[in-house]
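User: Before I run my own analysis I want an independent prediction to cross-check against. Here's the chain; please return only the structure tokens and, at the end, one sentence I can use as a sanity check.
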Amino acid sequence: MKGARLHGADPWRGGRVDDGLFLPDFCSIRVVFVVVVLSELLAFMFALVATTGLWRRLDDLALISLLVQWTALACTAVLCVLRRALLRLSEVGAATAAYLLILLVTAVVSEAAWWSVGGFDPERRLIAAEHGEFLFRNLSVCALVAAVALRYCYVQYHWQRQLQAELQARLQALQARIRPHFFFNCMNTIASLTRIRPAAAERAVEDLADLFRASLADARDLVPVGEEIALSRKYLDIEQLRLGERLRVEWEVADLPAACRLPALSLQPLVENAVYHGIEPRPGGGSLRVRGWTEAGRMLLEVCNPLPTPGAGQRPGNRVAQDNVRQRLAAHFGAAATLEVQVRSDEYRVRIAIPLQDGENRA
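Assistant: Structure tokens:
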């Protein structure tokens, strides 16, 4: 999923993948709705500043709303249709072209409005202003509003891009911090097997190469849950060579749809923690259980391991891996993704919940 949308992207963009144009997607229903609401607020403000009586203000509000909405929706339609043409221009050129188009549309709609409400017959005219004054006033207001709106879109777009760049750099740094932990453990295992079990050491090197390849993936990408599970299996295969029968693994992930996606190296650090803090300190080892299922529009992954027996040399943890995974989940999904820890009398359980995207609930 190249270029997955990270949490914090501008909702004003209308859901469109960033195409390099600072203008929002005026073909989006969300953006059209925002334009309609803001236009009506603008019309209401103009009606309030009128010096006429209350009932006359209501009449003015109806006429002003009709004119403003016609103008706003016409500008929205033109910018939607001409978006591809604007993409071929420079940023300054696109801004200038959009500004002139808005003024042109305003002039056309104003002219049409003037003649449609009695411009031919002064006695039936609903607009009190003269023709030239009416056009000048509308174009002046449009020029100011369009300049402010375009400036806002420009600043907002570049601010969002800066936030995305900073977030992507942070994700890469978080993923880089995960790598040394399991590489160090895996290399120690391979070193111990080199003389006594060379064939097993060779298989471990191949698994480590796959782990290394996966760890170099772009941190912005979401990977299929099957790939993350396969990566965790390879890591456990290496640990199995070191711990032997002391490590027993139970997988309950058959019900996970193949389309489910999550950040790379989300499950493997939790599995590594379970081995290092739960299984290895126990003289008799223990069973590590990995479960996965979907529920209420979310994918849930759970890693369970037994707690070390008292006096077995329990290792203190600093929760670096858990905090790392939690931060990367938040960067991709915001508050919709969670990582929870439950400690029972004899079991340690870590569960991550990730919202399903469109189409991911199908097996």
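Sanity check: The longest strand covers residues 286-295.
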